[in-house]
# Entry
Amino acid sequence: MEAMVTYRSIYGDVMVPASFVIPRDNNEWSKGCWDLPLGNIVHRLRLRHDFLTGDTAIERKNQLDGLGFVWDVSEHNFRKFLTALSIFSKLEQEEHEHTIMASTIRVPSKFVVPSDDYRWPMILWSYPLGHPLRQQALEEIGFRWSGNATLGWLDVVHAAAIYSQMHGRVLNPPLQFVVPSPPTPDSELDGLWPWPERLWGLKLGQRLKDVRVKGAYLKGPDSNIRKAQLDNLGFVWTPKRGRRRRS
# Structure
């Protein structure tokens, strides 16, 4: 936790890059933190909720929440983009309130949210809302301009990774398996639930059956990469016949 607090004091947030390792001989960091792979630790926190077990789990989660820890980066980036786009649209309407405007929002390709403009939240200052960085931001959260197949795959492989980790690196869910939501809405344990909200209700069993039977998601230039991803998760390509219990 000390490393997270220090990172936030230096960089203003806890959006730690996955490759970040705390540097040595840097007086901004205590010696006990030197060489700590903080980026990898943060990644494991998000993906598997490592270090959030035992009697202090809720307390640690509350501490992370207090630092502004982002549990779902894709959701965070999307909401940031949507917020910026909404504010841009509102300001444009106010500026042209006496002019008939088209309903389409048109953001100039080089538009960057201005700094020191308090009509915008400070967290958005210098945010590159215009194209091509806007397009890049959408692609980073899984959007593809040619269709939604890639976006669908990201959800499937994300859910598959969690299922695999929970079942000893074996990926063979029953056909009826659907990603569950927390058993008790608004429970203080919701933040420790291993399944992100965006995946709740995903029919993972059916999706993976489609992979086996129909080759779903395994067509095109990314097919070999996706097969390798499934292999690494322990995907059972030819399940044993017979009745299976629900998991």
